[in-house]
Structure formats: structure tokens, C-alpha cells
Amino acid sequence: MIKSKSMLDLSKVKTYNLSKRKSKVNMANFCQIPTKDKSFSGFYRSLPNILKAQDLRCVVEAVVSAHKKKKPVIFMMGAHVIKCGLSPLVIDMMHKGVFSCICLNGAGIIHDFELAFQGKTSEDVTAELAKGRFGMSRQTAEFLNNAINEGVSRGKGIGYAVGEKIGKDKLKFRDLSILYNAINYGVPVTVHVAVGTDIIHQHPSFDGAFTGKGSQRDFHALVRMVSQLDKGGVVINFGSAVVLPEVFLKALNLSRNLGFRVKDFTTATFDMIHHYRPQQNIVHRPTYKSGKGYYIIGHHEIMLPMLVWAINERL
Which CATH class is domain 47-314? Predict the structure, then answer.
């Protein structure tokens, strides 16, 4: 039983005028209800300027600003972006000069080639693995491994070697190839391989020496692009959880180690779930004390169209 003498005296509570308090949510930033304007522009304007919708706007404005300043916009992507049917959007951004550099992991060139070759990709891993047939398609391995071996022997990186081969062989659906179109538009495309992670590494045509040398050349090409990010560049990581965030961090460090000032730029990761390495190596560490980083969660097949349409709208 609490004694009365120990009861709180609420008459002494201190209050303040609500109108004097800083509020984080203001009706000026609220969403808009649907109107007769059914365009994407109308939809984009209707989004609330709060939380991730606000972050999306910030990323879009950073890309548009970088494009106008002729600063790099480096687009790093996991292979699922291709598997979600989004290659045309990446190609459109290269065509318009918005994306200055494309970075892929080893799986990216596999799905890019298969689309260029036959207009379809992505096997049933579970079913094929049970029979020891996963990743054993002859054309995929022979085309890519031979393209890499030949191109690297001539001093090229993996991205250029494969894109060049797709064009040279006039693959039927090459217009869907990010690698092929990157060469056509003069956009550097770099490929960063971890040996053993990709299906083509299982085949006798695979040569680790050529693949390693080609990936090293692409890494150096990325370092050169990263060195130009200072004061307005943008790095977007779309769906790579491990390889590309690790590669970017080293590319940034090497650029700074070589004496380049690389600060005051924007980074953004878009992915379906939150991952540690993209948070640290894309969003947080690179922009520490200068620049801004954003992490936006959502499915690729929704978020990339929204991002690209918004960039087009602002351009």
C-alpha cells in the first residue's frame, strides 16, 4: 500500500506550448489523393515527402544533378535485376547517358548472354541439381568462357570481351543485352568474379587465369570511375548483397590511397531485404562525414521501374 505522503504531486508537472514544439511530420508533406491526372508524373508528385518516399526523391535528384554536372552515376546490379526482366530499363539509362558505368557480378553475364542468345534464361536449380545437371548447358559455358579467354588474351576486361563477342556473333536477341549495348553506347561495363560461384566455372573451357586477369582489369576500370565521384557523383547498388559492395569498398579505398579526393557523393542500395554489407559498404562507410547514403527496401520489379521513370520525369 502506497502511503499518501509518497504520492506524486502532478501540479508541478512542466508543460509547453505545442505550437512552439518542433514536429517531424507536417501536413505539407502528406500524400495527395488520386486526381484526373493519371500520368506517372501525377503519381510521383502524389507520394508523401516522408521516410522512404522522401529518400527516393533524394536519390532521383542526386542522379539528375550528377547527370547535369557530368559526374559519374555508377550502377551496380545483382543478376536478379536481369532475371526480373529489367534489362530494357538499364539499357535506356545508358542510351540517355545517365548511367556512366555498369558493374555486374559473374552471374550477370550468364543471364545477359542467355537472353541475347535465346530470349530466355534462369533454370530450375532444384530440379537440375538433383540430377547433377545444374549449370551444365553447353552453349552458355562455351560461349562465355571462350569469349573471356579470347578477349582477355587481347588485353580486354571481361565486360568488354563478352559484349564484343555478343555483337560479333550477332546473337538474335542482342538488343536485350546490357553488355552489348554498353559497348554501343560507350559505357564501361565491369564484371567482378568470385571463382567457383558461377555455373560456367564447372566446365573444362573455364580458365581461372584468364578470368582472374579479366576481372582484375575490370576492377581497375572501376577504380578509375570511382576516382571521379567527388562532389556530386552517385553510386547505386541494386540487389548485390555481398560481391559488389565488397568490390566497391576496395575500389573507393584504392582511389583515395592513390591520392584522389573522393568525397561528397551519394550512395543508395535498393534490395528486397536488408543486408549488412550493403548497409556498411555502400550506405554508411563510403559517405562517413561527407555525402549521403540511402537504403530502400522493395522488390526489384517494382523499385527499378519507379526509379527510372522518376529519373526520366525529372530529366
Answer: alpha beta
